[in-house]
Structure formats: structure tokens, C-alpha cells
Amino acid sequence: MDILLPSRARQRRIRRIAIAVGGALVLGLVTLGLSRLKPAPPSVERATVWIDTVKRGEMLRNVRGVGTLVPEEIRWIPAVTEGRVERLVLQAGTRVTPDSVILELTNPELTLAVQDAESQAKVARAQLTELRVRLASQRLDQQAVLARVESQCNQARLKAEANEQLAVEGLVPAIDLKIARETAIETAEQLRIERERLASANEAVKAQLDAKGMEVEQKEALARLKRSQLDALHVRAGMAGVLQLVAVEVGQRVAPGANLARVAQPARLKAVVKVPETQAKDIQLGQRASIDTRNGVIPGHVTRIDPAVNEGTVSVDVGLDGALPSGARPDLTVDGTIELERLANVLHVGRPAQGQGDSQVGLFRLDPVGKIASRVKVRLGRASVSSIEVVDGLKEGDQVILSDTSAWDAFDRIRLE
User: Fold this and answer.
1) Phi, psi of 199 (to 5 degrees)
2) What CA–CA distance (Å, rounded) separates 116 from 226?
3) Choosing a second label site near 263 at 20 to 30 A (CA), which of 41, 90, 301, 355?
């Protein structure tokens, strides 16, 4: 029978403990290694993403917006006076001349007002004629009085001169000479007074005739106004062009100033493009633009920038420098592109789906093999419609994914298949 020595038993126990500790240590190292392993990158179909290459060279900055073609010359035809629509003579789309009657209104009260204004003008003209004749007669009477006094003055002066000569020879008493002199002085003063009276009478006549003439002019102006209002019941186009809109119906009552119709010149159009307010800050007058009518592209230039923002957009007027393509007409929807500037020798790439100018974004950059894309921080600069300046984070020749990558925000790498 073998007896187990104490030293061998102790060695076996120590060996077991060492094996257990070693196993635990190996297990811990394996666990630590597994915890530090990166998760497997998700796989993405290459055909489902948009990949572009970073380039260096000239970059064209532009902005784009949707708009419509509108006539440069539009005339709204208002109602001059109140009336009821009696008849629509022309329909929208008809070519018109300035004298073309578009519709007819009726207003019986205005007809009576015209007759009354014309009768008052006739009465005023008759009163002016009567006043002119009466004042002319009074003036003749005043002139006759002046002529008589002037004759008396001349006779008194001659008599005084004759008495002076006779008095020298002692043939006329001194008292008679004195009376003759006083008579000559008196008649001369009376002549002066009559002349002043005639001048004042002439001024009074002119003032009365002017006042009555102004009254006649007022009456005639009122009559002309009423006649023009009556004639305006036949609503005319006022300009050559195309009747775009008739805004009333037969039987409708219209107030003065209400818009009745709209006439435009279709041969002279401009584009009104609505640009997002965030992109409109760099637009300047005179910048080149192009308008796509979907049936041709027309060159143009910026002629006006609306100072106000409406529903997040700014309206920009573009004057057309080229001929209109066939089918171009008012209210046609168009696409407008405005050229802001040309940047020389800059690093640029296609505009990312979520990239804005002067911002920092995370983009997936492909490795040289093109299989793995890793997320990198990229600082962007000036932006255009389809391209954007790269300030930092990428170099020429790098390939990046520009599509929306929000579905992989939890991953720093993706695999392209």
C-alpha cells in the first residue's frame, strides 16, 4: 500500500491553482480584446450612393430658383365711375388696340349728370356774353364822359390863354382873367379824375370778366369730366397688346377704381425668379443669368432685387437679352440660374446633400481601394448650386460620398459593395 507524501500533494494543489489563474487570465485578455474590436461596418450598395472626386480649378458660383415669365408692360384698366356691366365685348386672349372696347357699363345717373353739367356750362357761357356786352356799354359811356370833359378842358384852356392876351392889351377885366384861369384848372383836374376813373373801370371790367370766365371754365371742365366719365363706360384697352384677364361678369355692379381687365404686351417679357433668402445675399444688379423655359434657354441679367422677403424667398427680376423661344408666354413657369462669381484655383467638390456654405460636416471618404469609406470632418467654404468650396479636411483626388448618410450616423465606416 502506497502512502502519499505531503510534498507531492502540495505540488499538485499549487499546479491546479496555477492552471486556474492562468485560465482566468487568458479569459480576461480575450474578453478585453473582443471589447476593443470595432463593430463590423455596414455594407452599402455602391450604386445607391453618389460619389464625387475633389478637384482643384475654377468653380462657378451660382444660385437657382423657380419663377414665371411676366410682361414688362402691364396695364390694369380700372372703373372710372360706378356702373353695371352691360356687355362683355372681348374675351381673354384677344389682341387689342388702344381703342378696342373690352366691355360696356351703364349708369343712368351719370347720363343725367352729363346733361345737367352741359346745361350749366351753356348758362355760364350766356352769362359771360351778357356781362361782356354790358361792361362794354358801360365802358363806352365812361369814354364818352371822358371825351366830353377833355373837350371842356381844352376849351377852358384856350379861353384862359385868349383872356391873358386880351388882358395884356387891357381889353379884359382882371376878374374875367382870373375866372378863366380857375375854370381851366378845374377842368384839367376833372379830366385827370375821369381818366383815373376810366382806368379803374377798365381794371374792374377785366376782373369781372376773368371771374366769370373762370366760372365758365369750371362749368365746362365739369361737363367735360362728366362726358369723359360717360364715354369711359365703354371700357377701352388703352394700349396695344393681348387682353389677359376680364375680372367682371355681366350684371355685376362695380365701384370706381375697381379693376375691370388687364392688358399686357406679350412680346416684352421678363422673368421673376424666387431665390431662397439664404442664397440671395450675394446677388447684385447686372449679374448674368439664364432662364430655362423647358423649350430653350434665354440669357439675361438681374434688373431688380426685391428688398423684402416673402415666405422665405426673395423675388429677383431678370431682363431677357435673347429672343423668346416658341411657346414662351406670360405666367409660364421657368427655372432661373444667376451667376454670382467665378473662383479661380480653388479646391471644390459636388455639393453634399446636407452641406451648407461656411459650415463643418462629416463626410465619408473612400480608401484608395474604394471598398471602405471612413467618416472625416470637412470644413466647407463658399457654396454654389451644384458645387462647394473645400477649405479643410480633404485634398485633391479624394473621393467622398455626397448622398444623405444620416442612416449611418452611428458608424464611422461603411463598406461599399
Assistant:
1) -65, -45
2) 10
3) 301
Q: Quote the pLDDT of residue 1.
A: 44
* Cell output for 74: 402691364
Residues 364 and 405 in one domain: yes
Q: Are 334 and 69 in contact (CB under 8 A)?
A: yes
User: Within this chain, do residues 249 and 336 fall inside the same structural domain, yes or no?
Assistant: no
Phi, psi of 127 (to 5 degrees): -65, -35
Residues 6 or more apart whose Cβ sits within 8 Å of residue 64: 275, 335, 336, 337, 338, 385
Q: What is the pLDDT of residue 185?
A: 83
Strand-pair category, 43-44 with 241-246: unpaired
d(CA 139, CA 137): 5
Q: What is the pLDDT of residue 72?
A: 86
Residues 77/261, Cβ–Cβ less than 8 Å:
yes
Element (H, E) at 10: helix 6-36
Which three cell numbers mark 232?
369711359
Shared domain for 93 and 239, answered yes or no, is yes
Q: Most distant CA pair in the chain: distance in Å?
A: 216
Domain-located, residue 218: yes
Total number of domains constituting the chain: 3
Q: Which three cell numbers stand for residue 323?
A: 429672343
User: What single letter denotes the amino acid at residue 159?
Assistant: K
Q: Is residue 356 part of a domain?
A: yes
Query: With contact defined as beta carbons under 8 Å apart, do 36 and 405 qualify?
Result: no
Task: Write out the residue range of the structural domain in which residue 146 sits.
Answer: 109-228
DSSP string for residues in 14-50 = HHHHHHHHHHHHHHHHHHHHHHHSPPPPPEE-GGGS-
Output b/e per residue, 247-267; b: 16+ Cβ within 10 A: ebeeeeebeeeeebbbbbbbe
Per-residue cell: 401: 460620398
Supply 213's cell numbers: 370766365
Grid cell in block for residue 86: 352691360
10-residue averages of pLDDT along the chain (417 residues): 55 72 69 57 85 91 91 90 92 91 93 92 91 86 83 82 76 77 82 84 86 91 91 92 91 93 88 89 91 91 92 92 84 91 89 84 88 90 87 90 86 85
Nine cell digits for residue 26: 487568458
At 16, which amino acid appears?
R
Q: Does residue 103 sit in the same domain as residue 113?
A: no
